[in-house]
Design brief:
Elements lengths: L19 H82 L3 H35 L13
Helix pairs in contact: 1-2
């Protein structure tokens, strides 16, 4: 009938008459490949660690840059406020000079008083801002139970 016995069939994975030497050779190649792969895995792990460390450094630098950007924005805002204040004071001073040149001493006195009040108000605001800045710096070192929430 053409039936073959199971024992006569050959295994598709390896030749049927493989010698011990060939098995050892193949086993040695597999071991060498595994060893090489392990070494490569260690190298890859080291590279990944270096990449992580680099990412942490980059993140810190971005945070520093972001902080500096915020500081620059605050400084720019303060400079623009000071420039506006200086412009208003100069305008008052020129009006005072013009009133004096026209011998309008009543107007000159009124403008001079306005300039004094304006300058005093600006100085008080600057002092209040400095006190607030110093207070916020001081509060960094106070434990939380001294805050208003902690005194319930």
């Amino acid at each position: 009938m053409g039936c073959r016995m199971v024992s006569e069939e050959q295994s598709p994975k390896r030749p049927p008459n493989e010698s011990r030497l060939q098995k050892r050779k193949r086993s040695g190649k597999i071991k060498a490949t595994v060893k090489r792969l392990r070494v490569e895995m260690v190298e890859i792990a080291e590279q990944q660690q270096r990449i992580r460390e680099g990412q942490v450094e980059v993140r810190k630098k971005f945070e520093e840059i972001d902080f500096e950007c915020g500081q620059l924005q605050k400084e720019t805002f303060l400079i623009s406020q000071q420039a506006e204040s200086n412009q208003q004071r100069l305008t008052l001073m020129f009006k005072i000079l013009k009133a004096r040149a026209e011998n309008n001493f009543h107007e000159a006195a009124r403008l001079t008083q306005s300039l004094r009040l304006y300058s005093r108000r600006i100085a008080d605001e600057m002092k209040d801002k400095q006190v607030a800045r110093n207070f916020s710096e001081y509060n960094k070192y106070i434990p939380s139970f001294h805050t208003s929430e902690g005194l319930q």
